[in-house]
Design brief:
The complex is a heterodimer of chains A (206) and B (208). With 206 residues, chain A is mainly beta. Chain A is built from 1 helix and 21 strands. Helix content of chain B is 2%, strand content 53%. The chains are: A mainly beta (206), B mainly beta (208).
Chain lengths: 206, 208
Amino acid sequence: MTEQNKINKYSKQLQVNDLSLSANTISSSTDLIFSSDATNLIKFENATVPILNLNSNGELTNTFQDSFLVSSNIDNLNVTGNGITFTLTFPVIKYDIGNNFFVDSFTAPAAGLYYFSCSCTFTGLLSGMTSARLNLFTSLQTYNSFTNAFKISTSGSLGSVRNDIITKMDAGDLCNMQLTISGSSLTADVSGASTLRTYFSGHRIA
Amino acid sequence: MKKNSINNISSSIVVDTLQVQNNNITTSSGTIVLKTLNSDQIQFTNGTDILMSMTSSGQFTTPLQPAFLAYANAAVTAVTGNNTEVVINFNTEKFDISNDFSASNLFTAPVTGKYILGTNVTFTNLSSAMTACRLSVVTSNNTFEVLANAYELSNSGTNGSISLNFSCDMDVTDTAQVLFRISNGAADTANITGSADLETYFYGKLLS
């Protein structure tokens, strides 16, 4: 028969039914359940800093999870159009939790799975600029999205191309966005505005 | 330092470096480990509601985490084409955990955090003059937009789609809504399509 509800000074263990407290470990031989009733929170903190909050509605927030949203509020003129690849620039940092975004690239702070979404709006196109590639570059893998740049714009003015992924990254891996428009001269522009038409967002999801 | 003690004065239990006091479980050093064996789960509950669960296989679920998917199941006709911007209605909900999607077109953030939002809008009945369109998601903090030649996205004026998604910050009670316009046509004769197959839809989830 299993002994229960005991304090064992030799094993440095307190056992209450199936729940065992020892050293830094809380364990159970069956389902381990933490419960808070009514409107109370279950919190995880580092000293007094909240790391993870789980409220009674089941809304889970972890304020310091690595994430970012950046955009361009200016036009970058004559940066592609003849096959030259332009690495997109983002002078506006909407937020950068973890401070992982630097010089237009995101650096993974830890190995894991990340979600990225990017959109690039271009303008100043000539009719020969029929090929556009938005390359979402990561250290492990490149993700391409293609379109006919001139055709999806309005007579050469304002067209967008997008790319979204969930990808695996190792700590220190980079991610940035590169646009290549081909077929004519170096006269195509990347459009920026106060609205987010050229933006890059990311979030560590696991 | 006293170890393995129950102190009825401070209402605390100390096991090595693990301390249980009042409503707090803390450690003075090392990592707190929650452990279960075999096929058992680690669960966080409110009464009988499971808020968060981790299976022995490492599958981590939060069944009440706010999330929604709504779509249009019928077309709305002659609403844009001559630069009229419309709020897209998604009159059918596939799911709406915690009931944050309302009035067929508005998501309201239940808590401050980071969210993923995405939408796809399908349109039809375009004239060849309808050479511009703009799909936007307007949140309280930012407006996200994509622009394109609407007619060229379609098949000679029939059935074209445009999409947009991103992660963003929202404060509690901030809202998000989808707007769309087609321009350069002579009149507002273009339709937004809807179907039981999801071709005009809007989704979102609290990420963190």
